[in-house]
Amino acid sequence: NDYKGRVRPDWCPGCGNFAQLSAIQGALVELGIEPKDAVVVSGIGCSSNLPEYANWYGFHGIHGRLLPVASAIKWANPKLTVIAYGGDGDGFFEGTQHFYHTAKRNVDITYIVSDNQIFGLTTGQASPTSQIGMVTKSTPDGNVEKPVNPLTFALAAGATFVARAFSGDALHLKEVIKKGIQHKGFAFIDVMSPCVTYNKINTYDFFRKRVYKPQHDTSNFEEAYRLALEWGDRIPIGIIYENTDKRYEELDPVLSEKPPIEREVRPIPQDVLEEFL
Ligand code: SF4
To answer: Ligand 1 pocket test: which of 46, 167, 193 has the largest number of ligand atoms within 8 Å of its C-beta?
Structure first.
């Protein structure tokens, strides 16, 4: 179970992505999932370099398009543990429609977003989760747009596992990721992950003063929605909502009968091929 990679991360010292890399590796090890059975799919952004930094199968995709790739991998070989991993810009801007539909389909993958509330790789522009008033390179007079709320979005889409975690609480983060991986269905985890270089507002101190772990019935949708709306002096972290709805893979008549990995691959007969050509 050695997930230690040979390529060293080039993230800025102190970046919240380090804690997530370590938490994902730790979660996989503690769940007894071997590197040959784990795939991490990413989009584009600082965080999306993560698949290169560990000894698992990785697919570094294009901006915002990680979820269709992750879904296809899971459908082709359901024995794999598939983790999709990207940033807030990647997931809630370019990838919004994929986020909605993958949650609605309840594909059995874990989607972790490194939410630093800024575009880091492109050196500090406002992202979909940037706070109102934040001064960035693209908003020199302060951001005037209301930030999206990834948790209410996921709940509205029908996600069957919705959670928030914090890079400054690595052990809790690892436990949430473990639960997400164990969940049978689409597990969404929004990780508050300080960008120490370009976001001077949502820092480790900002979150440490605010995060708390609510004790509630995680199957209660109304209560989950109320918690998902909470953002201010108190910010809830942990599993916000979970249900046991059936996965797409169980409902789809073709996938539920036999996944592609178990099907016989038959060559196309020469006469059929020639006629086609
Ligand atoms: Fe992390 Fe921000 Fe540096 Fe990117 S720019 S590596 S998000 S600290």
So the answer is: 46
Q: Any idea what the CATH number is for the domain that residue 185 is in? A: 3.40.50.970
Q: Is the shortest distance between the CB of 12 and ligand 1 below 6 Å?
A: yes
* Alpha-carbon span 148 to 130, nearest angstrom: 8
Residue 43 forms part of a structural domain: yes
The β-bridge relationship of strands 235-236 and 211-212 is: parallel
Query: Is residue 191 a contact partner of residue 165, using CB atoms and an 8 Å limit?
Result: yes
Helix (H, G, I), strand (E, B) or coil at 209: coil
CB 274, CB 100: distance < 8 Å: no
Assigned domain for 255 exists: no
Q: Does residue 198's CB lie within 6 angstroms of at least one atom of ligand 1?
A: yes
Residue 261 confidence class, pLDDT cut points 50, 70, 90: very high
Compute the distance from residue 208 Cα to the ligand 1 centre, in Å. Answer: 19
pTM of the model: 0.95
Query: So what's the ipTM on this one?
Result: 0.99
Predicted confidence at residue 188, as pLDDT, reads: 98
Could you count the other beta carbons within 10 Å of the beta carbon of residue 230?
A: 15
Q: Name the residue with the closest Cα to ligand 1, atom 6.
A: 11
Q: Whose CA is nearest to atom 3 of ligand 1?
A: 12
43 lines ligand 1 (CB under 6 A): no
Asked whether residue 174 is domain-assigned, the answer is yes
In the chain, how many domains are there?
Answer: 1
